[in-house]
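EI: anyone free to look at a 203-residue chain?
SC: sure, send it
EI:
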Amino acid sequence: MQHDDPRQSTVEAGAGVAHEAPHDAPASQDGSAADAKLAAMTAERDELKDRTLRTLAEMENLRRRTEREVADGRTYAVTNFARDVLNVADNIRRALDSVPAEARASAEGALKGLIDGIELTERDLAKTLERHGVKVVEPKGQRFDPNRHQAMFEVPDPEVPAGTVVQVVQSGYVIGDRTLRPALVGVAKGGPKAGAPADAAQA
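SC: here you go
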């Protein structure tokens, strides 16, 4: 029958204690490594999120820009053609203006038919241009706008504010929001300034 040696038990117990002590340091190191790894993953997540948001914003801007370019393409695709057609419209108007008002009023038979046909052609041409976004500018009575009008001369007229369009030499046209051709106009001078009170103008 064997008896346990107390010295062996003490050594084994001591060995156990000595074996367990070193675990404290690696546990602390593992915690620091985990924190560092978590911080790195968080930073990577934030960076990816930022990139994703930037990409989505860029895609939205691209979509809007593309839609705008497509819309502009539809609106302004006929610009050069429309500008050429304006010469036809001018010639039709010149033909009508060449007939004196009295002769037009008293016209009969073939002459009346010819005048009516030219007027109908002018109206149809204007409607066709308008269907494609081209509209005539009617500036008479409006304040002179250098973006839409081209002043050819000044007309002394104290009855209207200075800078008012009082005569149209040639019609202007716009396509969409852009000026296709400025109207050639005569502008009033000598009257009260636009926007001035009536009392101040009389003084």
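EI: DSSP finds six helices and six strands in the chain.
SC: 👍
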